[in-house]
């Protein structure tokens, strides 16, 4: 059974200039339920995590600043969100959703988080709409509890997974692979274990060939027994921030490559949604919905 993490808090109210990016967290589950791709039995509401889960990955001083809402103005500005208690509760709930998804993936082969993919969160700071790194926390949870030996992070958001790269820069048990726009945020890139920086205007054929060749090589070389997939849809040509030029069909084929590779090799996979900033919200929801449709088609 496909298990999906989602909670009302995922789409909590924000000031008007921040509300549009949050709409997808309401509309995506509604669309999937309406079309019958999933039922209510597929959805679970993640709980708040124990602090120890967060502190295994994130600096205690930084966590205290979040918990007590004491980030400086500069630190708040870098996150891109106005800081509030509700925002912190949202972030930790999403984070634990990815951890719980990892446990479901071990059972069912795949699980998915309607939010997450907060790959710009460093061990000691937040950036780019990311406060805490859900993929990093879930990876450490699996490794610490001997539920995985070697993790592969496949980050296909248009923006480099700089926070994830920093967190695991000295940990060979987590291989970070980021395929992103060369000229996109962040200006200063960290060093992932494998970075592929794509030129502006990259289209479907080049993108898909590059992904398939490199992913299959990595699966052979790294031999992961768990895979985290950051499946941001800001690679679309319609995206306001993306600068690449994938079609909806190309984005779907991207997801199919990743999911089929994991399924064929019996590697449990957790997908987190990542970014998406097209002007038309219907395009964002459709592109994300394709990931869930493929999961049902390939796995169940």
Automatic annotation (TrEMBL):
It comes from the Bacteria. The keyword NAD does not apply. It holds the Pfam family Hist_deacetyl. Keywords: Hydrolase. Residues 24-280 form the Histone deacetylase domain. InterPro entries: HDAC_classIV, HDACs, His_deacetylse_dom, His_deacetylse_dom_sf, Ureohydrolase_dom_sf. Gene3D superfamilies: Histone deacetylase domain. Belongs to the histone deacetylase family. This is Histone deacetylase.
């Amino acid at each position: 059974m496909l298990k999906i993490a989602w909670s009302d808090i995922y789409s909590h109210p924000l000031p008007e200039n921040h509300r549009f990016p949050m709409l997808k967290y309401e509309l995506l589950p509604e669309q999937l339920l309406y079309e019958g791709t999933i039922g209510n039995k597929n959805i679970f509401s993640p709980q708040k995590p124990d602090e120890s889960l967060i502190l295994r990955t994130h600096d205690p001083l930084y966590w205290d600043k979040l918990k007590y809402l004491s980030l400086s103005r500069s630190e708040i500005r870098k996150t891109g969100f106005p800081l509030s208690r509700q925002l912190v509760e949202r972030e930790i709930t999403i984070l634990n959703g990815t951890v719980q998804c990892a446990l479901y993936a071990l059972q069912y082969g795949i699980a998915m988080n309607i939010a997450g993919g907060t790959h710009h969160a460093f061990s000691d700071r937040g950036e780019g709409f990311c406060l805490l790194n859900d993929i990093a926390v879930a990876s450490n949870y699996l490794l610490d509890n001997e539920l995985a030996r070697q993790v592969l992070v496949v980050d296909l958001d248009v923006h480099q997974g700089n926070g994830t790269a920093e967190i695991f820069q000295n940990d060979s048990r987590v291989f970070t692979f980021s395929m992103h726009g060369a000229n996109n945020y962040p200006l200063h890139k960290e060093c992932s274990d494998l970075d592929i920086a794509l030129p502006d205007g990259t289209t479907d054929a080049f993108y898909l060939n590059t992904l398939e060749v490199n992913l299959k090589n990595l699966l052979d070389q790294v031999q992961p027994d768990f895979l985290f997939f950051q499946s941001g849809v800001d690679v679309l040509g319609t995206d306001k921030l993306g600068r690449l030029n994938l079609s909806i069909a190309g984005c779907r084929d991207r997801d199919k490559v990743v999911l089929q590779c994991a399924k064929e090799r019996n590697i449990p996979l957790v997908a987190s949604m990542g970014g998406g900033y097209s002007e038309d919200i219907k395009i964002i929801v459709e592109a994300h919905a394709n990931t869930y449709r493929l999961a049902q088609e390939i796995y169940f």
